[in-house]
Amino acid sequence: MAVGTRSPRLGRVQAFDADRGRGSIVSVDGAVFAFHSTAILDGSRQIASGSTVAFLVAASPGGRYEAAALAPVSPA
């Protein structure tokens, strides 16, 4: 799947630092995307490492591609 498409991807939260609000997701194709806690759709701003998520890939304000619109699909 191409980077920057509006089609949802599946992946697993590789790491999440709640103090910084930053984390990373590894998609099923092995690509790694950073994310910010504000991208978690349920509004909790918390997500467990190891959680399976559906997400979109979008350009960040810094010009890099990040995970956006994270929706957990299973518990960690």
Secondary structure elements and pairings:
Blueprint: E1 9-17, E2 22-27, E3 32-36, E4 52-59, E5 65-74
Antiparallel strand pairs: 1-2, 1-4, 2-3, 4-5
How many distinct helices? Answer: 0
**Total strands:** 5
Kindly provide the radius of gyration, computed on alpha-carbon positions and rounded to a whole number of angstroms.
Answer: 11 Å
Helix content: under 10%
What class, by secondary structure content? Answer: mainly beta
- The CATH superfamily bears the name Nucleic acid-binding proteins
N-to-C span: 25 Å
The main pleated sheet reads as: 5 strands, antiparallel
Q: What are the low-pLDDT stretches, counting only 5+ consecutive residues below 50? A: none
The CATH architecture category equals Beta Barrel
CATH topology annotation? OB fold (Dihydrolipoamide Acetyltransferase, E2P)
Summed up, the domain count is 1
Instruction: Estimate the strand proportion.
Output: over 45%
Broad shape: globular
Mean pLDDT: 90
Model description:
This protein has 76 residues and is an all-beta fold. It has one domain: Nucleic acid-binding proteins (OB fold (Dihydrolipoamide Acetyltransferase, E2P)), CATH 2.40.50.140. Helix content is 0%, strand content 50%. The protein is built from no helices and five strands. The chain has strands at residues 9-17, 22-27, 32-36, 52-59, 65-74. It has a five-stranded antiparallel beta sheet with strand order 3-2-1-4-5, with no helix packed on it. A hairpin with a 5-residue loop joins strand 4 (52-59) and strand 5 (65-74). The radius of gyration is 11 Å and the shape is globular. The model has no long low-confidence stretch (mean pLDDT 90).
